[in-house]
Amino acid sequence: MLHDRILVQLDKDASERRSASGIVIPATASLGRRLAWAVVVAAGPSVRQVSVGDRVLFDPEDRSEVEVATKDYILLRERDLHAVAEPETRESELGLYL
Question: What does the pLDDT look like over 38-90, one tens digit per residue?
């Protein structure tokens, strides 16, 4: 990876969603502009805010797709990220914080 580039892989859990009433919403359903979660697979030397293994939030419209060893990845710049999820801890049952 060069400069501030980040290689991410989409979360497998992000493919389908459930509404509050329990209806399954497929990933192909269009709900307007929606951000997506992914896991950082590789990061360039100029990346300062994230590291490999972090879960990040980004806009799927601002992406470049690439295939490496028959797996699909997304190439982003660090500035295209909206948030980095804090890792879940077992001591706290408060949920996910950004």
Answer: 999 999 999 898 989 899 988 888 778 888 888 889 999 989 898 888 776 65
- 70 burial via Cβ count (<10 Å: 0-12, 13-18, 19+): exposed
DSSP bridge partners of 36: 58
CATH 2.30.33.40 fits 5-16+33-84, yes or no: yes
73 burial (CB, 10 Å; 0-12 / 13-18 / 19+) is buried
For 13-48, give the DSSP string: GGS-EE-TTS-EE-TTS--SS--EEEEEEEE-TT--
